[in-house]
Amino acid sequence: MKLNKEVRLTKGCQPDMSVEVAIVGGGVSGLYSAYRLTQSQALPADQVQIFEMSNRIGGRLESVVMPGMDVVGELGGMRYLTSQEIVTALIEKVFAEEMTPVPFPMGKTDKLFIYLRKQRLMQDAWEVAQKKGETQPTRYVLNENDEGYNADQLFNKIIYDVLMADPNLDNKFRKKIIYNPEHRYTYTFELTSEDWDEIKPVLTYCFEGSPYNKRKVNDIGFWNLIKDRVSQEGYNFLANAGGYYSNTINWNAAEAFPYMVGDFSANVEYKTIAEGYDQIAYSLANAYLGQEGSNIWVENKLVTFTKEHKNKSTHQYELTFLHIPSNTVWKVYANSIILAMPRKSLELLDQNNFFFNINQNAELNKNIRSVIMEPAFKILMGFETPWWNERFGIESGHSITDLPMRQCYYFGTDPHNDNSLLLGSYGDMETETFWKALSDDKELFKVRANRSASMDELNALESVQATQMMVDELMNQIRELHGDSTIPDPYVTWFRDWTDDPYGAGYHAWKAGYDVKYVMEFMRKPMEAENIHICGEAYSDQQGWVEGAFCVAELMLQQYFGLERPEWIPQSYYMGW
């Protein structure tokens, strides 16, 4: 498969350009902002220009196809929830002719492995034991009343107990929190996003004897809360068995609650795009670029911006860009700036200008740091056969382990030649440091000629190969996870570490103690007197999701640029604070 990434990118510079809106960042929030501003006819396309530091668009979306196989691999974001109505509408309505929505299968739990503390189980082992009236043994010394729960169920139990312990929780919410003691392990939360936004700021932790008793859950770290409810050993079980350390770091516990019972619960339906998940970025870009005067100026790095300049009688801001290939500095003049950037990218800008200067705008400086940058990386691996299907009957989904690889996703097989794609490691948080030492080694993985991929094709990927040590270490872990020392080596790899500049992280999480509603609204226009806006996934209430980037961009555009809600976003859809 050849991915359709044809897009008109402007690689030069145009000194002294004047526009109404300068959008800095060619990720999904920047592309969406340009698309909406121009498609709504609020502004002509020549007055809305996008500037991107790298030589590509899409930000932390990056779909790739490995040589020799007709299977799409995802190095960044890879799926969406059908409850996320902006991304769903764009894929399934607005750009329906360009993108094909398909299920993102999570596999059959009776075939997928979970390997913790050298104990290898199938992922449905807990449910099988529960149906027999038994308790699934693990190598974790859990509290007696927590034994027998799988990770999803134990997360639900914690959240249920905290919600129901608050005597001030409104009865209308209690009716939506369902537990039948006859079905000990089953909890159901029918709370909407609006419900959660009412609950989160006021929810109180009410457990006598706890160091956090009578404190707002918003002010407690999730690790602190989990340990208090189920012990540190219970926390270790949840952190390991849940698959993502990022879910159990010490982030804002109130924000973690809806995330855990919604985005990562057992019964969630995921979809993706057959042509690659980054096609949503390319569809937005091409819709914007189809208009006269539009440009995405790539390889142009924003250095700083100022209000003191020669054209201030007609344009409020002067932006200074570095055209990277020519090392040329050039100026752009604009009346509004949209910084469609994550935290690290914002911190890489000039911190001494009038906007970021801590002495002039301490609140912005504080609020930029209201989110935790969560390291994440992926290693895609191409194999000559789908050994996971042949040996274990695994068709799709992911296996989980406490080994540093953390997870592997079984992406698919080319029906023409059996070449198959595995996401060999989906690491996050502290596991990133384990792999960093290996990824910095000088000896790259030695690709092998394949019946469907020439050495020329394989060698063209030299810049993205994992190192030989990394692959050797990862294959040891894959073999240990599956209990099979004869699993073959891959013939090609593709490695991406999202902690590298300018991204700084794969995704973000709110810190405890911040008024998230206030910060979200603040970041969309940090200085009342300035037409400077910040948007993107980092400062949203759907962090880690494309939908979060879209929601904050749409709210910003409606509030500060006067745009009406488009007809393809239902009026009933709640976009958050």
Count of DSSP H/I helices = 17
If you compute it from the alpha carbons, what radius of gyration comes out, rounded to the nearest whole angstrom? Answer: 24 Å
CATH fold call of the largest domain: FAD/NAD(P)-binding domain
Major sheet attributes: 7 strands, mixed
Task: Give the rounded overall mean pLDDT.
Answer: 94
CATH class category label of the largest domain: Alpha Beta
Helix-strand blueprint:
Elements (H helix, E strand, L loop, with lengths): L16 E8 L3 H12 L8 E4 L11 E3 L6 E3 L5 E2 L3 H10 L6 E3 L9 E4 L2 E4 L2 H7 L19 H15 L5 H4 L2 E3 L7 E3 L3 H7 L4 E2 L9 E2 L5 H20 L11 H11 L6 E4 L5 H11 L6 E2 L2 E7 L10 E7 L4 E12 L3 H5 L14 H7 L2 E4 L1 E8 L3 H6 L5 E4 L5 E7 L6 E9 L2 H9 L15 H5 L8 H15 L9 E6 L9 E4 L5 H8 L8 E3 L11 H15 L17
Parallel strand pairs: 1-2, 1-17, 2-14, 7-20, 17-25
Antiparallel strand pairs: 3-4, 5-13, 6-13, 7-8, 9-10, 11-12, 15-16, 16-17, 18-24, 19-22, 19-23, 20-21, 21-22
Helix pairs in contact: 1-9, 1-17, 4-7
Account of the protein in words:
The chain has 577 residues and is of the alpha+beta class. It has three domains: 17-59 and 278-371 and 509-560, FAD/NAD(P)-binding domain (3-Layer(bba) Sandwich); 64-78 and 101-107 and 376-497, Alpha-Beta Complex (Polyamine Oxidase, Chain A, domain 2); 140-263, no CATH class. The chain contains 17 helices and 25 strands. The two termini are 40 Å apart. The mean pLDDT is 94.
